[in-house]
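Incident log, support desk, overnight shift.

02:14 A customer reports that sequence design results differ from what the structure should imply. Their input is reproduced verbatim below. On-call engineer (initials T.W.) acknowledged and began investigating.
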């Protein structure tokens, strides 16, 4: 007998398509799940955007009402009848700011930066229009070097800032010290 030959007489030959079909169904299920997830995220973001728009509109309405109220109060303050009370208010606010400068704090801070051979003759704090405190001081010493050291210490200090020597006077018979007029920015501790 001769060897047998495998012959398939069917019209559709047998193929092993089951793994491919299972992978197709699994991929379709994964893509469907991903679509559902993305659709849910889009829905959530849409509702959050709506909430954000509503909150923004509410804040805008509040801002508009506050600006209207501010304009009304500003118009009322600018009436000629209220001019005197505004002047008094500004005067008292400036007075309170000046009164809030602590002399004890100024002298404590100056004590930390003044060299032992520099004498503080006078100090006058001034408040600028930008609410900065400037100290106008007159200091004296036997020679110019200690004053230069003091200026360097003032500029390097955390409490004092830009410092300038505006004028100086030599010793006289009645005043045996060199006298210097020094101005310095001052930032007191809060």
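02:41 Re-run completed on a clean worker. Output:
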């Amino acid at each position: 007998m001769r060897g047998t030959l495998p012959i398939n007489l069917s019209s559709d030959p047998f193929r092993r398509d089951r793994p491919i079909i299972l992978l197709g169904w699994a991929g379709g299920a994964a893509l469907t799940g991903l679509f559902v997830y993305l659709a849910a995220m889009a829905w959530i973001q849409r509702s959050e955007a709506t909430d954000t728009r509503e909150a923004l509109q509410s804040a805008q309405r509040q801002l508009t009402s506050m600006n209207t109220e501010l304009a009304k109060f500003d118009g009322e303050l600018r009436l000629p009848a209220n001019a005197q009370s505004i002047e008094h208010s500004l005067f008292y606010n400036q007075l309170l700011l000046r009164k809030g400068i602590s002399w004890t704090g100024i002298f404590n801070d100056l004590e930390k930066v003044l060299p032992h051979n520099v004498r503080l003759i006078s100090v006058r704090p001034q408040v600028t229009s930008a609410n900065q405190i400037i100290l106008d001081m007159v200091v004296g010493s036997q020679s110019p070097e200690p004053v230069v050291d003091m200026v360097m210490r003032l500029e390097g200090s955390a409490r004092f800032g830009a410092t300038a020597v505006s004028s100086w006077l030599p010793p006289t018979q009645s005043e045996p010290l060199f006298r210097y007029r020094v101005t310095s920015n001052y930032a007191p501790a809060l």
